[in-house]
């Protein structure tokens, strides 16, 4: 739920994107994209395949540099700030394709998420002295007592990531993003490839991380039922442009959104698609 100040006017956006344009050669991946993410909200970015969703995420997190436009985080322009510094400032993210180190354990993968915040120098770390030892102890305690417990993965903490089923690997990747101590948790297709039970678990974790930890969530997701159930604000991309944004109800009723997804202006089409998807998921369970 978006945060409001006592006067009743909306709080300033935690993240503000204005006029983002990104091109690869002669192809525009993003064209004038703009929207805001309110503190304490769950904002979803949706759109057909190839709409520019992951390009937008990569631009916000600093992997791509836009040709035009700006990105402001907590009021500061971060458009030209490198990705590692954005992570230290509070932008943590997961990836559409799992980006874990498969030869390492779950615990070691999660600990890597905190790397950007560690202050021990190379000498300290090399000889495991003072600051490095203290940071290691604090890091392990925070991960084991908060993150691992929160995501219910205590039973696999010492398992090799490569041996885990897909759904648990996605949960470990979310754990690593949380270890970055984000103010905005950016999730790129968090339930892609999951079965119904895994999807419901992930939806619960997303709601809980907002409610219990106060983390703002920005996610790209194809599961329309989950988007409509969880989101406070939905941004719809098509061919690199924002074609609609607003509450789930407003977006769901927008004929332009229905045309983008279904080639039709019938507002009922998207509702029927959502209902059919929910029915098939129940039948498969």
Secondary-structure class? alpha/beta
CATH architecture of the largest domain: 3-Layer(aba) Sandwich
**What do we call the CATH topology of the largest domain?**
Rossmann fold
* Strand runs, count: 10
Helix content: 40-55%
Cα distance, first to last residue? 30 Å
Basic shape: globular
Query: What is the subunit arrangement here?
Result: single chain
Taking strands numbered 1, 2, ... along the chain, how are they ordered across the largest sheet?
6-7-8-3-9-10
Count the domains.
2
Strand content: 15-25%
**Number of helical elements:** 11
CATH superfamily of the largest domain: P-loop containing nucleotide triphosphate hydrolases
What is the N-to-C succession of helices and strands?
A: EEEHEEHEHHHHEHEHEEHHH
Name the features.
six-stranded mixed beta sheet; 10 strands; 285 residues; alpha/beta; disordered N terminus; 2 domains; Rossmann fold
